[in-house]
């Protein structure tokens, strides 16, 4: 599935319908927990809560008894079943079923919620947590199908399932659905090693993301990011891994270093193996030269026939075979991480204990029913497979599967003790002899591995092998952690902790500073100003904006890049030292945030825009979406809020970290909450001509500090551009809260102007051919009114004001008409254009609404012209401009329009042309 919201095609009413699906991967409007959202329309089922469906609750509880553990709103086991009895709607039921199906498949998920969609009776947003998004979506599908299957025949009916993952089931059945979910979960879930590292990272607050369908995981952000694949890490040397995979080379290097290793010879034929065994002395061991997981390894081979058999087994896994001396003793795994011994386990080969009654076959079957055993690496121990190796090994002891061992008899089933072949582990970390520990640590260092599993044979690990005999039989790169995390006996060891300590030593950050900026207007300029300030500190800045992604000032991706995908791109860049992320509502609604926590979050303002889309009907709804940013600020961070915007200021109640307000009001005009905040020593920054002075002042800890002067910031046009004063205050507040010094902020803002290079499409000004052109992306009423205030201040120094006006097609009719009304009060002449992407509207419909608004605003129809093509509209406006005029362009295709206005030469015969235009 893609990360985008998927919307169903229209279908006939009357049946249960899936309308939308979405996967939230970070904090979102509904929760901080990653969730699947499935929007459903119950249709006629809205009239049938569970208390009106006889037998439904009992049938469901019988099929999924685990639902009895769901506390639901009561917070105690049985709470959900009580809700079923009292009567609850089927969307809520499906939410709990989806959670339980995931639990039955092996996931650990508990959180969910279902909410009715305002103004749409019978429509619900069903949301539930997931460990893997694909598994979660499939569980949602099966939950809907299960609930529907329990309804009376006359109430059944489905549509929209094509929005959910395909199912291999021709006909739904719960056992088959659970089997399918378990298969998918097993294929997608992390193994114990990777899972332990991910859980340790979460406990430390280190962000992580999965890079593929296997075990490749990235921890941290930007320049501090590190990767692991199982237990191989960013620090694991490829050369060291190659050495470890060559067993003969490893033995030789360790032997040269004076470490105890068996003598070994490489052979390429059965007879060569027999000759090598004769030279080394029986018994011997045969193993693949570059094998792993104990595959093809056989020990204690006592004669030529066994050596030939052992060679054949090893040859299946490697072209060359190693024949080596056999060390007497128990098999141990010593785990060395970062040059330190962190865990020791004695590995016991797969075995059973006789009861005097059962055959070996029955004893193995019984042992495989042990709940600690599972397939592969999913459980603490692996099930014992009956294969040729097992049969040959027990035959050497004179046994068959039909043999009935005596009661209490220990029957070893395999020659090696690997967990992957059914072995078990006993923790001995606290009792290993110091000599043995030092030998293992030196071996890891000699091979060059940051994480090494040392296979160590010793009669008694508590005594030095220098005295007892024994030593290293293998050094493994990428060792599994399962035996140390879940030993069959002894203390479990947190071996993931040392790995994270090695990747991120004490005092080393795992993440880069993250600044997140949102708001209805001003977020792009604010983000660019902040990035400019942070670059002045010498940091390499990653920036996402509505015009692209920038790294260290270079645009690496074009387009509207204000969503989570672009943010992840910046956070993953290995050179980025600071992330400044413009964050728009679309990505928040579609997928949530790209990060769990940010250092500083800023909301510039909230006003009417994009209403009527994706369930956001009111400006209060929009404010709740924008608030997700500051709710994600960590406890030691800062939330930057516009004190002049009531909806934004109110976010302080739920915002994370500490609060810093910004305001353009004079101190006597401050609202009570701001006065109290500063009086208590809280932080705020104020500036702008409305304060009665051009000074920008920081209030902090009861003191006041001069940040700078408004007229020293070119982007404010000597303070005339009030909206850029606000943006400068917001950017300064974020920089101050991050600890940037006031001189650096002051100096950086003094070099931030309105050039297209610094802030494309945001108050870009060109003086050419005797007239002035302003290019701005004003795309909503609030933004155009703010631009209109500036135009009003500039009007006395210009002859006429010509506007090129457009509006995105995904706004409500009333919003587009209102833009026309505002424009009527700003311009003497208006040329109406339409965006290249009509966003679902018919050609001409936006223009018609704008004309209606211009008429309502009182603009004479002779001063209106419709020229749908944006380039043509701008070109004609520039041709019409006379000396002293001001042309204001609300641009969509910024690059093309900027090139036009900055290079335009007036067409022949157009100078002095009348400004009275006939309406079309």
Characterization of the model:
This is Cyanophycin synthetase. It comes from Gellertiella hungarica. GO terms for molecular function: ATP binding; cyanophycin synthetase activity (L-arginine-adding); cyanophycin synthetase activity (L-aspartate-adding); metal ion binding; tetrahydrofolylpolyglutamate synthase activity. InterPro entries: ATP-grasp, ATP_grasp_subdomain_1, Cya_phycin_syn, Cyanophycin_syn_N, Folylpolyglutamate_synth_CS, Mur-like_cat_sf, Mur_ligase_C, Mur_ligase_C_dom_sf. Its EC number is 6.3.2.29, 6.3.2.30. The protein has 920 residues and is of the alpha/beta class. Among the domains are: 6-188, no CATH class; 263-325, ATP-grasp fold, A domain (Dna Ligase, domain 1, 2-Layer Sandwich); 514-749, UDP-N-acetylmuramoyl-L-alanine:D-glutamate ligase, CATH 3.40.1190.10; 764-903, Mur ligase, C-terminal domain (Protein-Tyrosine Phosphatase, Chain A, Alpha-Beta Complex), CATH 3.90.190. Helix content is 33%, strand content 22%. It has 29 helices and 40 strands. The strands form eight sheets. It has an eleven-stranded mixed β-sheet, with helices on both faces. Strands 1, 2, 3, 4, 5 and 6 form a six-stranded mixed β-sheet that branches. It has a six-stranded mixed β-sheet with strand order 35-36-40-37-38-39, with helices on both faces. β15 (330-337) and β16 form a beta hairpin. It is elongated, with a radius of gyration of 35 Å. 49% of the residues are buried.
